[in-house]
Amino acid sequence: MKNLISIICLSVLATNSIAQVWHKNKFPSPESATYDNNGNDLRGFINTYKNDFLAKGTQVKDASGNDWGYLQVKNVKTPGSDKEGNLNYYEAFDVTLMMFKTRDGGKASWWAREHNSPKGSMKWFKAGEPGTLTLDNVKYTEIISELQTKSFTIVEYADSMYSQNDFEILLKNTVFLKNGTIKELGDYKAMINFYNKFLDKFTNVNDAVLDNKSFITFFKGATTQYAGYFNIVNGKLSGKVEAIDAPFERDREKFINDMFKKLNGSAVYLYGDDTFGMENIIKKRAMKQNLKLNRRNTSSTKKFNADI
Question: What is the pLDDT of residues 27-39, one digit of tens each?
């Protein structure tokens, strides 16, 4: 009965926000994070998403000439563990699970922060016999070091909880996507081509002149329209791409208003050749917030760094 109560408690915790709370235990249980947490673990994540991950990751690698990185991630609640290996379900850790597309396959890893503190050091421990996972389980630093060489990394997350701040620190330029946003594999190529041109509009992203600037972008896939917003975080681009599902004016207003809430710049660039009927809404919202709005088409040769 006690075990049943513990499992129920952990399940309830898993639906809560990823806001981290300091815990008495220093680490989560490595076994629970890896393979022994009722499917809310690295093995369960791999078993559920591996085929999807490999198909999308291969598309990203091929479309970018291996210049973009691709991660699928999921955050789960994992019980803490003391030095004797006793589990603590009442102080569950926020654990980030991830799969990384390599040239010839994939690798998997997880991390958690010590004491579950946002400022705690990041930890990973190997657990399980060889063959426990169908992807190679490596320390997260092995994955991150390779991703830091990429122009952009797509971080595709499985639910509404993901460690955005951690990825913004660890990676170069980052595009966040909720899994299912892009339904046609060919749209990954459209996105990569579009944002490669976008990146070309910067002399250097790590430039103090850009610190007060944010970006709203629009592009089209085979049949789907997309919008993305970006801020400069730690001298790097960090943003999110969403599919546009806004058939009515009120839907478009809500879509743009929600996007503006995520911008942190006092100057906003509108980038793309077609805003899909939203340009006037964007202008009104920028004026309402007293934000400077600049317009750029993909054919423009002027660099964002050139504007003071």
Answer: 899 999 999 999 9
